[in-house]
Amino acid sequence: MSEDVFKKIVSHCKEYGFVFQSSEIYDGLSAVYDYGQMGVELKNNIKKYWWDSMVLLHENVVGIDSAIFMHPTIWKASGHVDAFNDPLIDNKDSKKRYRADVLIEEYMAKIDEKINKEVEKAAKRFGESFDEAMFRQTNPRVLENVQKRDEVHARFAKALNDNNLEELRQIIIDCEIVDPISGTRNWTDVRQFNLMFATEMGSTADGATKVYLRPETAQGIFVNFLNVQKTGRMKIPFGIAQIGKAFRNEIVARQFIFRMREFEQMEMQFFVRPGEELEWFAKWKDIRMKWHKALGFGDKKYRFHDHDKLAHYANAATDVEFEMPFGFKEVEGIHSRTDFDLSSHEEYSGKKLQYFDPELNKSYTPYVIETSIGVDRMFLSVMSAAYCEEELEGGESRVVLKLPAALAPIKLAVLPLVKKDGLPEKAREIIDNLKFDFKCQYDEKDSIGKRYRRQDAIGTPYCVTVDHQSLEDNTVTIRYRDTMEQERVAIDKLADIIADKVSMKNLLKTTL
Ligand code: ATP
After folding, report:
1. Which atom of ligand 1 lies closest to the CA of 330?
2. In the chain, which end has fewer C-beta atoms inside a 10 angstrom radius, N or C?
3. Judging by DSSP bridges, how do beta strands 412-416 and 462-466 pair with one another?
4. What tens digit of pLDDT does each residue of 437-446 get?
């Protein structure tokens, strides 16, 4: 996959009503997007897949929906006021702003790419007898690049951990990283930039209070920990899940819905006994990876990436990365957040946030494992994996979204062969029967071939064509999106055929 494919996916999203630039008629608002008629269905299905996997499949996980506005001291306690910063650097020639850490990460990714290309080339040259491990250990060019990468990596990790902004700049200088636009190395100093949006609550005459738009949904869970535990009589270990909007004033907001200023998160905080957190961290890593892989896009598209710099609250952290068209990128973070947040809220609020453990006969502040995934990034990963251009027989081609059927916006299109002779009425009758269970679409415009292409492009797994024979024997032609095969089936069998494949239940079963 390449940047080129990525551009095609972006325009496909627009053309078929998945994602629009926000405020487009006013030339848009940077890094803010709207979901269209197809996008909202896909997004809702992704959210349902996550929600059900958390809240239905785990007896000890419950949901909440907390407000976006919260008491401003919460963000002091959570560390966001003081430490939710990105290191930014400007190029004096292009006047463009970059994240210093991202520039260095991309530089290291390029070295990795070089190494992989070297390995691929050799694999082709040597064929079956190729011993990849041996090649990686002995090839001088590979070794040289690995050494180069490791050196940069070690300096980078140390600079991040020491919060050493001069050293970050020095790495950029030493690696001769150039601005992709101006092509120069004329860099400013590195500065810290806080990512939270602030606004005012109450009228200014009374002395309005500065409040923040939440940069993560997690804090709404922490401050409700005791409310849920007490009213739900929850016993540790237990989790609280939430889906909601988050806001970050991202410095570099490129790459479509990958990095937005307003986005949506699906987060779950799992409260455990102190000392048991790393065991639960491993368990949740496993559960979450299975959830991703169950979509069937191929296991090779996923990997874990452990953090170089642990956030101020974490004692273990990893990302689930997905192979986007522009490389492996974080889709989900899994963090062992210790008791940092609850303890800090105890300190700042003066309220106890402890749990009495009847088995241990003592009270403690629980430790927390967090799983945090961006709905929009998940959406982009699903779109990227599903987007497919196929050459067909006879020189034709088609664009098809090979979406998992349970996530597809439309499950079934019903197409009368012609717009007369009672076929539209028969088609409507089918929809009227099935619309309680599946999102259906009726389409009578253009040739059947064109209608199939339109449904392929939005990922509809089933198309049903109603023809004259349907009126006589109550059968229709069902066409399968991926294979394009068609078969004649009885109308009263349709519900069963479709239900099996589009069922969220069946998808959820494969995550276990
Ligand atoms: P990044 O390093 O890419 O900025 P992060 O590590 O700051 O991401 P987290 O704070 O761990 O991200 O947030 C959890 C999840 O929320 C991420 O894995 C991602 O899916 C999503 N997310 C974070 N920031 C954005 C954003 N600006 N736009 C869309 N999704 C985001």
Report:
1. 18
2. C
3. parallel
4. 999 999 999 9
3-state secondary structure of 464: strand
In terms of Cα–Cα distance, which of 190, 192, 193, 184 is closest to 92? 184
Q: Is residue 75 part of a domain?
A: no
Question: Is residue 239 located within the same domain as residue 344?
Answer: yes
Token digits of residue 378: 């998940």
In a domain, 73, yes or no: no
Please, which residues bridge with residue 197 across strands? 213
Model's pTM, two decimal places? 0.88
pLDDT digits (tens, 9 = 90+) for 369-412: 999 999 999 999 999 999 999 998 888 899 999 999 999 999 99
Instruction: Report the separation in Å between the CA atom of 237 and the middle of ligand 1, taken as the mean of its atom positions.
Output: 26
- Statement to judge: residues 345 and 244 lie in one domain: yes
Question: Are 51 and 151 in a shared domain?
Answer: no
Q: What is the pLDDT of residues 147-158, one digit of tens each?
A: 999 999 999 999
Start-end of H helices in 57-216: 73-77, 80-83, 100-126, 132-138, 140-161, 165-174
CB within 6 Å of ligand 1 — which residues? 248, 250, 259-260, 263, 265, 330-333, 372-374, 376-377
Of the three residues 339, 368, 391, the one that is the final residue of a domain is 391
Give the closest residue to 404 by CA, choosing from 422, 441, 379, 375: 379
Do 367 and 414 share a domain, yes or no? no
| Closest residue by CA, ligand 1 atom 24 | 259
Same domain, 263 and 353: yes
Please give the C-alpha separations between residue 163 and each of 99, 103, 190, in angstroms, as whole numbers: 14, 16, 11
Which residue's alpha carbon is at the smallest distance from atom 3 of ligand 1? Answer: 330
Among 105, 331, 372, 380, residue to substitute to test ligand 1 (most atoms within 8 Å of Cβ): 372
Query: Which atom belonging to ligand 1 lies closest to the Cα atom of 259?
Result: 28
The phi and psi torsions of 328 (rounded to 5 degrees) equal -70, 125
Categorize the per-residue pLDDT at 261 as very low, low, confident or very high, splitting at 50, 70 and 90.
very high
Same domain, 63 and 112: no
> If you average pLDDT over residues 332-346, what whole number do you get?
96
Q: How far apart are CA 136 and CA 115, in angstroms?
A: 9
The tally of domains found in the chain comes to 3
